């Protein structure tokens, strides 16, 4: 791909990939915690960012420059992430954890198309094949409903699919911002922008804003930790990897979420979902092979 020359290779690239996979696996915990939060979907997104902010502020403070005026692209990242969380959490409410996570991870298609058309980052043919394989695996997982499909699966699936657009725009904004801004400062400001937007949405939609039990509060705090650790790791890695490559690697997230949905909520994993998970992971591996830096002539 055209942009690969600007990114490191060798051990530095593999370290960034390891951090990216770790972040994606951590984010795979999010839909489970949203189910346990005992609040409305947008309210759960607000608490996620609210409880993450102290951790992000401390991290950004050590890096310096926390209170400098954020750039427009950072503000855009915060807006896109608020939309991403709102749509995704409503998807989790109405459909299964597996379907909500799988459909929201159609992001690589949007990212690759956008980068190709607008950023002139032409992908290799093998990378396009890898995207098709990974997304195909996700679709196989989504076709087989789990044991707990949710309140309104068609509506939930629609919300989840729309999430892919917002998350793709978020990743593109993060990839652009990481050219000049550290990951901790980016995460702090984007979360600070997104939190009040989600709180306002929860109020306008008449959602329950606070959990009723201690377990719900623990889930909300857990969402904050997951956000700071998971999205923080992804943002850090995206400063060292092409955005299109990162968007494919995070497809390990639906595999983790589907397994947790099976363990915690009894959402059955049939043969098709097992096959889809294997195909999606194969696509991720193929994408890494296709996007490796070319050796110098």
Task: Please provide a written account of the structure.
The chain is mostly helical. The protein has one domain. The chain has 13 helices and no strands. The protein has helices at 10-27, 30-36, 41-63, 72-94, 97-104, 107-118, 125-143, 153-177, 183-204, 214-238, 243-249, 252-265, 271-290.
Observed structural traits:
297 residues; mainly alpha
Which blocks of ≥5 consecutive residues have pLDDT under 50?
1-6
- Beta-strand residue fraction: under 5%
User: What class do helices, strands and sheet pairing give?
Assistant: mainly alpha
Report how far apart the termini are.
16 Å
Number of strands: 0
Name the helicity range: over 70%
> Can you count the helices?
13
Please state the overall shape, judged from the principal axes of the Cα atoms: globular
In this structure, how is the largest beta sheet organized? none
Written as H for each helix and E for each strand, in order along the chain, the element string is HHHHHHHHHHHHH
The count of domains is 1
**Rg from alpha-carbon coordinates:** 18 Å
Mean of the pLDDT scores?
A: 79
